[in-house]
Write a structure and sequence with these properties.
With 351 residues, the chain is mainly beta. It has five helices and 18 strands.
């Protein structure tokens, strides 16, 4: 039975991946540009700010978060994971990026019923002031690039197998993107994700997402495509206080890469705990950057405070701090088989 359940979970994830690929196929046709999804495609897409990682916990784990996504920042990583929140969840993050670049992120998710969640988020970037010069190099003024992304999300648990060993959820996003350099541009895009929850003796999750499905941003007369990205993710809890995760990423503007993440808690008690985290990004390693990330986190009842440090080689280092609020408390549904998404959520009042 266990082997059959594992096979069913894997087949479900593969079927979901095929469906997402079919949905996004019109936006990923190789005929558009033969360089797409290869190293030669660097610089062929726009709106790279859509790929800025949000949430210090996820950033510290190297971005290997597609199959984790268990609080409000799941809007960004995998909207299917929103069904894991308790009654409500909120995340606030500030990131000090390279040079004068910084960005802020805020997200809120609210449970509508035991099997559905609605959520929204906003991402704001600030690149600072840039001098504007004429063709002779004379300063004629300055401009301040800004980017904004507004997202609405909906997630629903769509399937519970009769043996309660596997659950499946799906999530979708609708995004409005606005970018300003010297001129401004705007566009709409969507994301979709699927996650399977496998409650075996060693529970694990499988996930697949397609992000930034849409047209492009047009500055002046030229329009460039958005950074369409496919991800396959897996996460496993070999022990109650340990989480291991991995993502395989297929970005339109580069060749595939692998992300690895790990989290170790001092205690399995979700009400009060301390965590250490680490991650690895193989794409950054190929680009001559360390690719390593690390961080710590502390949870006290409803609140979690997380910090991530990511060295970027000669470019410097980046820092992220985020505050997460989970009410009534952070209690992951991803536990042993007697605690599925459905059995846990049916005991919560939503009035």
């Amino acid at each position: 039975m266990k082997r059959s359940n594992t096979r069913t979970g894997i087949l479900t994830a593969l079927a979901a991946a095929a469906c997402l690929a079919a949905c996004a196929a019109p936006y990923a046709r190789a005929g558009e540009d033969p360089r797409y999804f290869s190293a030669a495609a660097a610089g062929t897409t726009t709106a790279d700010f859509l790929n800025l990682p949000v949430g210090a916990r996820a950033a510290a784990m190297g971005g290997a978060y597609t199959a984790v996504s268990d609080e409000a920042s799941a809007i960004y990583w995998n909207p299917a994971g929103l069904v894991q929140i308790p009654k409500l969840s909120a995340v606030f993050m500030r990131a000090q990026y390279l040079e004068e670049i910084s960005y802020q992120y805020a997200a809120y998710a609210h449970r509508l019923s035991y099997d559905s969640v609605i959520a929204g988020s906003i991402l704001l970037t600030d690149i600072g002031s840039i001098k504007q010069t004429d063709i002779s190099g004379n300063t004629v003024g300055s401009f301040a690039p800004r980017d904004q992304v507004f997202t609405l999300s909906y997630s629903k648990a769509i399937l519970e197998f009769s043996d309660k060993d596997i659950d499946v959820s799906i999530g979708v996003n609708a995004k409005y993107i606005k970018s300003r350099i010297s001129g401004s541009a705007s566009s709409y895009a969507g994301d979709i994700g699927v996650m399977t929850y496998n409650f075996s003796d060693i529970p694990y999750r499988l996930a697949v997402t397609a992000s930034n499905i849409g047209g492009g941003l047009r500055y002046d007369t030229e329009s460039n495509p958005l950074p369409l990205t496919f991800k396959l993710g897996a996460a496993v809890n070999p022990f109650r206080n340990m989480l291991l995760s991995t993502d395989v990423v297929f970005p339109k503007q580069n060749k595939p890469n692998v992300l690895l993440g790990a989290e170790l808690a001092t205690t399995p008690n979700e009400l009060t705990r301390l965590c250490v985290r680490a991650g690895l990004n193989t794409q950054q390693m190929r680009d001559g950057i360390s690719g390593l990330s690390m961080g710590v986190g502390a949870t006290l009842h409803f609140f979690s405070l997380d910090y991530a440090f990511i060295p970027m080689g000669e470019l410097g280092s980046t820092h992220r701090i985020s505050l997460t609020f989970d009410f009534p408390f952070r209690s992951p549904v991803f536990q042993r088989r007697d605690r599925t998404i459905f059995t846990k959520m049916k005991g919560i009042s939503f009035k």
